């Protein structure tokens, strides 16, 4: 009886492996996704030693958006992770705690909300500030970066209320950007958060230096880095789903390997 169960189990495993291989082949043969709306299953790029599944998986769309900050933290701190890229299928809906992305798995922990994810990763990698005062300052710049993101459309209309708030906030960030780090004497979450504050000279220099760090430079040229879409490049207002067309082709490695949620 036991032997029969053993044989049945190995036949089932071989069947599963064949199905997996076929899924990978048809995934690779499908045309490159041109937009986020592509009806294509998620793909994964592993940033961990081969054959060594990492504890951490970050799921987001094949966009920078709310996924870019957690990706930058993971890349900068060298935490091994699987980077999962979703397209238009909505397969995350049943398990994403609030039905949205990004979602982070860290061992048995499953969390959403980009701010909670960024803070969890910052604590895990000890870049959340040294003492209580530094932690508070890190939080302050992190919240500033979130505020800036929420009113970034003000860039199209500098005379609007959002445009004026944006300019005032950027000026504050610029004034605090004299040294190598926003808070304390080493990298913290506060340094990773303002990655999009380009138009100001000190901030621009800071972003350039940040991008030149070996871990970040490697990431920016890797399959994990996705191109911008028209909705994100700051050149025109957001135009809904049609605006999520990639401005440059996705790197083939980004969408080569299919991914399914654990237990699916
Ligand atoms: N407050 C959430 C917002 C998450 C959110 O708005 N996610 C959007 C993409 S940026 C999403 O999942 N949209 C698709 C959906 O709702 O199914 C966070 O910061 O993570």
TrEMBL record:
GO terms for molecular function: glutathione transferase activity. It comes from the Eukaryota. Gene3D superfamilies: 1.20.1050.130. Residues 54-129 form the GST N-terminal domain. InterPro entries: Glutathione-S-Trfase_C_sf (IPR036282), Glutathione_S-Trfase_N (IPR004045), GST_C (IPR004046), GST_superfamily (IPR050213), Thioredoxin-like_sf (IPR036249). Residues 226-236 have a biased composition (Basic and acidic residues). Residues 226-264 are annotated as: Disordered. One of its GO terms (biological process) is glutathione metabolic process. This is GST N-terminal domain-containing protein. It comes from Emiliania huxleyi (strain CCMP1516).
